């Protein structure tokens, strides 16, 4: 069967992010927009400081907003893959509107920047689910024309969601993301290897990556989560705060990468990189 130009492009770009099932580490860095300065210690206000540490540690990709991708190109370009997140929001919004993401860039912006993928959030269960699905559909259709993979941040959030980490809720969101055409999915960890394995299976071969979430109590706790999602069949993890809020950013990134690639156990990674 002859492949289309677009399908070849998508396959090549995905391979740069995911490799050959190696266990990929994507560094998420949209927190300034989403959360504001509360996420950042005073000595890490400048994003260049954090991103240089992370890229030097050898992450597989960085996920940036369009503006930061342009501003920080001297750091990431030619050294790691780029995912451009083209939806977002601020925590300055009225609380009743925080379950809506706005378009902050375009697929064309991402292509111009040299990105290997675009990313957009859908809050499944939000009162604004319809608006975000319309955004998602437009993004996915355009990305398809350019042969660019579309990563969906499939986040169950809304008044009817009793527990966004509950296995059945996460599985529902992931399955929904597959059904609307996601090429790659980022979602919440369900708390156990066994339950996350069911989430991965529900994706029917679409790669699933764990969302790192807030910083855990200890690095070892987080590294054990990374090991378990990999053993559950996940393609890797998309991590932000558990890396950039760590005392030693590059060391924590290297520890995460080694565990995701199943090169070291969580305990060995702590001993080698974090002691």
Low-confidence stretches: none
Shape assignment: globular
Q: Determine the mean pLDDT.
A: 97
CATH C-level class: Alpha Beta
Strand residue percentage = 15-25%
Number of individual domains: 1
Strand order within the widest beta sheet? 1-2-3-6-7-8-9-10
Count of DSSP-assigned helices: 13
Distance between the termini: 53 Å
Fold topology:
Elements: H1 5-18, E1 24-28, H2 31-35, H3 47-56, E2 61-64, H4 66-71, H5 73-76, E3 81-85, E4 87-88, E5 102-103, H6 107-113, E6 117-124, H7 129-146, E7 150-156, H8 167-179, E8 184-187, H9 193-202, E9 208-211, H10 219-231, E10 236-239, H11 241-244, H12 249-260, H13 266-274
Parallel strand pairs: 1-2, 1-10, 2-3, 3-6, 6-7, 7-8, 8-9, 9-10
Antiparallel strand pairs: 4-5
Helix pairs in contact: 8-9, 10-12, 10-13, 12-13
